[in-house]
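Continuing the series of single-chain predictions for the mutant panel. This is the parent chain; the variants come on the following pages.
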Amino acid sequence: MVKLGDKIRELRKQRGISQEKLAEHLGVTFQAVSKWESGATMPDVLLIPAIASFFEVSTDELFDYSLYETEKKVGAIVDEYSKCWGNSGTCENPERCEEIIREGLKKYPGNDILLNCLIGTIPIPERAEEVIEIGKQLVQSTRRDEIRLDAYRIMAEAYKSMGDLSMCKESIEKIPEVYFSNLYVKADLLEGDEKFEAADKEKHLSLEHLIYMLYILSDHYNQHGEKEKAKIQLEIARGVLNAFENDFSTEYTRCAYDPEEIDKISKRIANI
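Parent structure:
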């Protein structure tokens, strides 16, 4: 396997780029680049995506990894991370989840899948600036649209938590407005188990989104003194969840019926 410093020197010379130009692009000194290439030091992990992006290669190519082997091993790390995350919408053990991903990044520095997991684990607003810094590197380097868009979403949340609505809006504007999803199209067009899995997952996502939007509408009406309209939105949400009383778990999703959430809605209605 080619050493990182050797690979940087090789890519730089192939493109006829000086150490000074590379250093200027990355915001470091040319002495730092020289030390990387000699093997005396390693670039900071957050610079890896920027280096790969500068040379227009993937981080796997930068480290001379086998793409197949990398994807398989990164997939195993993500599986461990997902089990630690749990089945609820909120991470059950964020410290351990972050530890798993950071250990993975030591083996696969700059890997976009792992970085995407990382910024989804770091708490906001407590470490919003760190999230934004990683997000900026990620959107510049990843070749996966879904990761780039998710990074913009998380960055928007981080900017909002810092009170920077201008940058929040700017990040949101990078996300295209679409009226269908990968899961929706799979459920519509595929057959058999693939069709079932997509429809089952899309059902749950659609339900979560609908309930959340009803909460937002209720809050809006309540803030403007329209209390009856606010209650109606919550009553719709409660009715929708009650309609899933006879729902059941599958190998892909948990039961959509949630008595605790229904109880929370009832309390919200009572407090309006």
